Amino acid sequence: MENTQNRFVYLDNIRNVLVYNVVLVHVISMFAYPLSFWWAVIDKEGSSRFYETSLIPMDIYLMPCLLFIAALFIFPSLKKSTPLEYIKNRFMRLYVPVIVFLFCAGDVFNQLRLKRLNPVSPDYSETFLNFWRAFVDMPGIYLTSSQKTLNTVDFNLSHTWFLTLLFLITLAVVLLSLPFKRKNSEPKKVNSRKKIILQTIVFAVMMSIVYAAAMINYVIHHIDFGSWIIIGKTLQFQTDKIWILIPMFLFGLYAYKKEWLTRGDIGTWKIWGVLAFIPLALYVLFYHIGILSTLDEILKVVEHNMQFDNKIASPLMDGSVQLSFLCTWVLLPPACIFLLMFFLSFAKRFFNKPNAITTFCSKHSINVYILHYIPVLILQYTFLNVPIIPVLKVMLMTVIVIPACLWLSHRLVYPYPKIAIGFFIALKLVALAAGFTFYYLALLALIFISFAGAIHESARFVVAQKDRLKSA
Questions:
Q1: 226-249: buried (b, 16+ CB within 10 Å) or exposed (e) per residue?
Q2: Which long-range contacts (CB under 8 A, 24 or more apart) does 278-284 make?
Q3: Which among 102, 43, 110 has a CA at the least distance from the CA of 391?
Q4: Does a structural domain hold residue 3?
Q5: What is the biggest distance separating any 2 CA atoms in the chain, rounded to whole angstroms?
Q6: How buried is 253 (Cβ within 10 angstroms: 0-12 exposed, 13-18 middle, 19+ buried)?
Q7: pLDDT > 60? residue 261
Q8: Is residue 255 a contact partner of residue 265, using CB atoms and an 8 Å limit?
Q9: CA 4 to CA 19: how far, in whole Å?
């Protein structure tokens, strides 16, 4: 796969949209009670079934599509460096940010949740110590459903789980490919459009069967398929989603090997749009009508039992709810795969021309993913008691977080990574001594300073563009 700048602009644009979509998911989580009862900041009065249902379809495609795109660039990147250099670069790009985030802000979620649940929250230094005690005490394989109470300070990789999974499966691919490394061969015959479409549909059907079988097996063995598993204290993933994440990554490797996106014709966005709409619409419908009403009641009981000693029996799922779950398990893989193909064909058709804005966003997309989580939590805490409607809060938080993270990445993290690490570590050390209120105010100030910087530079860019057009 040639990595020409113009040819893969549409892949960068898809990745940009997916990353900003992740920001939106985390913002909306504040209003998705009781589906997100475990979230750090919850607005129960502002929550509604609309926000719960909004999270459902986004959960289908975000991380799988990001993994697919990441898989496409592994072997092209290996052509530019040795395997050791590539692994080192990926470690610095993916795992070092995880380590820095966990030290500087991994406990913020716990602190905010404790402030929500308790009249008097513990000192921030105590939360920090408990967070790392949980890390030390954690067994080699840990299932988050074993957590007994919401008041427990637990260790988890938060949103950086995706970076750990991406690094480790990339490492596995590089190591496994070493014995098979060979010189460039003659160009192979590319699959026809019909064959590509047929193979994709067959893959979706196979994944539908595998995924449904895995979920049924979880139910039979009383495994919480919505829980997270942490392996070796360094790798985290959701027990149900792994059955779609790994196949989508392998699908990306297959698409690269077969040169589907360079020399092939994957079909039009209209075809994939229709194919994606049917399973996606049915999936959302089953959840909204057949599952959420019962699931909400179950989750409220789970929330109560994770906070109080007087345990309540969980409502039983009737046959219709169980059937609805089975239908969603069958529908999820086709919805995800067909949506991916729709994104690829649509973006390749309409968003494949480079420009300054998309190039800038692509350069900083991974930093936005890493940085956005804490600003979202801080702003949710700030906006919690502000008397404005939830949809306006969602819009304001999203509009503030994305530009602020872009500016912070552009002016600090990307050009001066060592200084950025030193700055965040120093700020955290001061916060451990000064308390969480100081840390909260410092982070809030940093968010709005970054947002103001983004607005200022955007205005300068617009003026410069106008001046350039006038001079031309």
A1: eebbbeeeeebbbbbbebbbebbb
A2: 279/331, 279/332, 279/334, 279/335, 279/338, 280/57, 280/60, 280/331, 280/335, 280/338, 280/339, 282/327, 282/331, 283/56, 283/57, 283/60, 283/328, 283/331, 283/332, 283/335, 284/53, 284/56, 284/57
A3: 43
A4: no
A5: 74
A6: middle
A7: yes
A8: no
A9: 23
Q: Which of 102, 104, 116 is nearest to 154 (CA)?
A: 102
> How many Cβ atoms sit within 10 Å of the Cβ of residue 43?
18
Domain count, the chain: 1
Residue 4 included in any domain: no
Look at the chain and count its residues. Answer: 472
Tens digit of each residue's pLDDT (9 = 90 or more) over 35-83:
999 999 999 999 999 999 999 999 999 999 999 999 999 999 988 889 9
Residue 226 within a domain: yes
For residue 321, the enclosing domain spans 9-180+189-471
Per-residue pLDDT tens digits for 342-355: 999 999 999 998 88
Cα(219)–Cα(209) distance, integer angstroms: 16
Residue 2 domain-assigned (yes or no): no
Report pLDDT digits (tens) over 404-455: 999 999 999 999 999 999 999 999 999 999 999 999 999 999 999 999 999 9
Taking residue 107's Cβ as centre, other Cβ atoms within 10 Å add up to: 27
End-to-end CA distance of the chain: 37
The rounded radius of gyration (Å) of the Cα atoms in the chain is: 23
